[in-house]
Amino acid sequence: MSDDAYLNLRGIDAGYGQTRVLEGIDLSIGKGEFVALLGASGCGKTTLLRAIAGFAFPSAGSIHVGDHDVTRLPPDKRGMAMVFQSYALWPHMTAARNIGYGLRLKGWRREAIAARVAEMEALLGLEGLGARKPSELSGGQRQRVALGRALAVDPDILLLDEPLSNLDARIRLTVRHEIRALQQRLGITTIHVTHDREEAMVMADRIVILDKGRIAQLGTPQAIYTRPASAFVAAFMGAENVVHLDATCSGHRVDIAAGPLNRAASLSLDWPAPPSGRLEARFRSERLHLRRLDEASQEDGNAVELIGRVEAVVYPGGEWRHTVRIGDGSVLVDGTEALPPGTDVVVRVPTNGLFLFASPVDAPTGTPPSATDEPSPVRERLTA
Amino acid sequence: MARFLGPLLVSPALIIILLLFMLPLAASVIGAFEVEGAYGLGNFTKAYDFYTQDIVFTAVIVGLSALLTGLLAIAIGGYLTLGENPTAVAILRWLYRWPMFIPFIVVGQILRTFLAKSGLLNSTLIALGLIDPLSATSYLDWRGVVIAFVWKQTPFVALMVAGAMASLDRGTIEAARNLGASRLRILVEIIVPQVTTTLLVGLVLSFVTMMGVLSVPLMINAQAPTMITADIAFRLSTYRDYGVANALGLISLAISGVAAWFYLRVNMRQSR
Hints:
The structure holds two protein chains of two kinds.
Chain A lengths: L4 E12 L2 E12 L3 E5 L6 H9 L6 E6 L2 E2 L10 E4 L11 H11 L4 H14 L15 H14 L4 E5 L7 H18 L2 E6 L2 H7 L2 E6 L2 E6 L1 H6 L4 H6 L4 E10 L2 E4 L8 E4 L8 E7 L5 E4 L10 E12 L5 E7 L2 E7 L8 E7 L4 E4 L18 H7 L1
Parallel strand pairs in A: 3-8, 3-9, 6-7, 7-8
Antiparallel strand pairs in A: 1-2, 1-4, 4-5, 9-10, 11-12, 11-14, 12-13, 14-20, 15-19, 16-17, 16-19, 17-18
Helix pairs in contact in A: 2-3, 2-4, 3-4
Chain B lengths: L1 H31 L1 E2 L2 E2 L2 H41 L3 H10 L8 H12 L4 H8 L14 H25 L3 H9 L4 H12 L1 H16 L3 H6 L7 H12 L2 H30 L1
Antiparallel strand pairs in B: 1-2
Helix pairs in contact in B: 1-12, 2-6, 2-9, 2-12, 4-6, 6-9, 7-8, 9-12, 11-12
């Protein structure tokens, strides 16, 4: 990726006073690529975007666009245009004047501005709304005016700061696809800040997951979803069920010893196994197999089987969601049929949905911590 | 019973307003039309004959002061909002409010010594070699009044305007910077249009305040033409002529009313 990289960040540090918000961020973005900066509140994603935009100068590191060092350039000299979370439309100007303002600053002639504004209005489906003030537009229309204002100046790089977070849920789903389609049509390099995992997944070519000011993982949506590099990323990508297992590992093989809460298993992974010892096993609630304890398994052995008891069952739509107590903790398991609370069950986690990481040294023995009982820091930050 | 409780509860406040404010106002208004026991416009014709020049002088002086106050308040608020030197911003923020706590009469006193022919301003200018001692003149005329008004009222309007600017969505400023607007353009085209209402409220309040100041014209501008307030004081203390004094008061009220009407009109156009 670094060969044809268009926007290059090298060793970016940033902070406010004593607080370091970003530490050693290295990132290369290709021309025409759509990259999402994903993370919980306070992870530094907005600070990183503002450093790229030029609203905050990094305390160390460099930012290059093509061959130009833009690290210390003012925001308007970087060929970037930003769409703000609040849209930041100017309330005293009409939609058309908002869109055309950047061109007016560039000294375009009146007719040329009008033509460009009309082009933007057609592109964004804002025809006939040019004479309205922002207060007379709906949330989705304001969002499009903000997008039009940024695109009108024909920037090399488009920066989106959580542009969908002020829209209601249903509109958000369509606007995601509209923005993505527009970005592909224009072929404009785009950086999108969001805390919404699904939004990042459906919009971006690549996702950068930030945690405490560092890049936790960088990759395509599929790679990050199916091959999280750390327990943090796995949890962020929805694998919030956690159990701890003792295992002996070598190469791609993982041998799990039988315990009070799990059966012995011999797994063969598609990727290198973590070091032997205590492992933190994470998995999502879907694509598991849930059966009664007395039912025999009819599947091959490439899976971990956990023993527990159904505590609760609800129907969120699609499949039944069971809360299964395993030892001191509990996990969420989706199943096609509802098993009543109190049933002793086996939860079967196939290898391709299981993420194994070396356990933190202070992890307790036995099976907990769990996805639902204790407030995990990841979960807290996700909901914050 | 409950039906009478409400009116009963507001009655003390209402009575005080009626007795201490509405009644004297009504008496003054009626008094303005009273000429030797009969009603007529005699007081107004007299006021017109004697004081037209002063009325125009007052309107022009106060209008000019309000204009300059507005410009300075925008400049101060703008620097507080857009200034990039934190130290300069902090110093300005600390400094600009001081005149607000100084009464008009003290302002008059200070400026008398500052603006006089041999005052501090001229001696400084002479010392700096900017003017030669022979061409030094006193500023204690209409210019002194304007300086006093602007000096005293700018902090008040700047306080309001700076507050309104501070509560703007910073994004609207950054969006303009992002597209390449200079700080001056951001101030004129992005910030000021968003705080117009606050600015106008501040200016109308200042206008009405300045219309009623007696001490400054008496201390700084003891010559003709002078302000209506000085004329009212003169009619009262020298002639005990309540009729013409009331008429002049009513004319001041009318001039203030024009300012208020202007404000309301702009306000309504904005909310539409």
